[in-house]
Amino acid sequence: MALETLAGLSAEVVACRACPRLVTWREEAAANPPARFAGERYWARPLPGFGDPMARILLVGLAPAAHGGNRTGRLFTGDRSGDFLFAALHRTGFASQPDSQTAGDRLTLTGAYVAAVVRCAPPDNKPTPAERDSCLPFLVRELTLLGEIRVIVALGAYAWEGALRALAESGVTAKARPSFAHLAEARIGRYSLIGSYHPSQQNTFTGRLTAPMLDAAILRARELACTE
């Protein structure tokens, strides 16, 4: 059997229709956009990860936004969460520009790769456990293909739990299950896991997550990645 590639895995992700509720929701969101996106053609399919295939840092989110990644076709692209995240990645030297509005822009990542636990936009941003478990093998396979990854930054408690589950499926477990917190760290096999609050508007508008806080998590990831 031919060796799996990131491109092959991405094509499989995009074609997935395994979760009927998520398929319905992502397509309904595309058919009924808010006024600011009226007339735009939505991606309305699952989203693969993207970034540097030789990255040492993997950033994991929860799922695409209904009118962000589900619209543009790239994770964290075209929404406020992505604006906050890419600005931080640009400040810390991983992104070529501080924002990303379309999948066809000139954004490139160097040394970093972005993925999610669930690849379709879920209603109320809440996947079911069954949907999470159906999607998780994609993250497991990405970890295998991204052989240089040494640090995982979990953007939120859901991503933290998803990363732990993906690592366990890869045969790597912690001696004691670590708890999520901003800047929490855990050593799991060859990986370091770092927690950060998710760059959602709920967190950034309330000050729960500030730009310096997110920068600190990414800079800590860079520090660990450089010492492995």
Q: What this model shows, in words?
A:
- With 228 residues, the chain is an alpha/beta fold.
- The chain has one domain: Uracil-DNA glycosylase-like domain (Uracil-DNA Glycosylase, subunit E), CATH 3.40.470.10.
- The protein has helices at residues 6-15, 20-31, 69-72, 80-91, 129-145, 157-169, 201-204, 211-227; strands at residues 50-51, 57-61, 112-116, 151-155, 185-188, 191-196.
- A hairpin with a 2-residue loop joins β5 (185-188) and β6.
- The chain is globular and about 50 Å long.
- 45% of the residues are buried.
Topology:
Elements: H1 6-15, H2 20-31, E1 50-51, E2 57-61, H3 69-72, H4 80-91, E3 112-116, H5 129-145, E4 151-155, H6 157-169, E5 185-188, E6 191-196, H7 201-204, H8 211-227
Helix pairs in contact: 4-8, 5-6
List the main descriptive attributes of the protein structure presented here:
228 residues; alpha/beta; Uracil-DNA Glycosylase, subunit E; six-stranded mixed sheet; 8 helices; 39% helix
Unreliable residue stretches: none
Structural class from helices and strands?
A: alpha/beta
Please bin the fraction of helical residues: 25-40%
Count, helices: 8
Major sheet description? 6 strands, mixed
H/E element string? HHEEHHEHEHEEHH
CATH superfamily: Uracil-DNA glycosylase-like domain
Task: Identify the CATH class.
Answer: Alpha Beta
Shape: globular
CATH topology: Uracil-DNA Glycosylase, subunit E
